[in-house]
């Protein structure tokens, strides 16, 4: 009986060690896409801008069960601020953390000197959606596949704070897709990849900012040409 107990304990220890031995851990860094202007040399003056409201005007996450928090609009605003700053054409002024900035200035016994913006960049997520598309090869005998697709479209308006005039407008859109195929019963199946939402939103905002910079560099709008 004692030998059986010892054998059972040994088998349990062996199984545990094998389980631990099969565990793997991996990590890697991922390149983050930037706007095209980030790679273009620019020596001109930077225009101070502030990002205003960025709302979700699409039907996504705005149903009767929504809690009223505009997460998609907030995410788009954060992405927009980062991409505008990366263009090297603008000094992006943060208005969301004024209370924190005031507190830190007090800690340092310094007087704040808040800078005004020459332009307000505002806009909307005008379209956003996602879907799954499936297919079967030879009536499913040779496998089946599923493609997850996310689409986003954003609109940006450049507004003069002096006259409230919309001096320039652009739109940007993007689509992201992810495919997964199962062959004759083998292969993985996956639920919807929620990271596609952020990726396609970033893509649409980048495209809009690229067009914004094109107009800026071409003199269509800038503090040099706009009163």
Automatic annotation (TrEMBL):
Pfam families per UniProt: CsgG (PF03783)
One cellular-component annotation, GO: outer membrane-bounded periplasmic space
Keyword terms of this UniProt record: Cell membrane, Lipoprotein, Membrane, Palmitate, Signal
Key word Ribonucleoprotein present: no
InterPro entries: Curli_assmbl/transp-comp_CsgG
Signal peptide annotation: 1-23
Protein's recorded name: CsgG/HfaB family protein
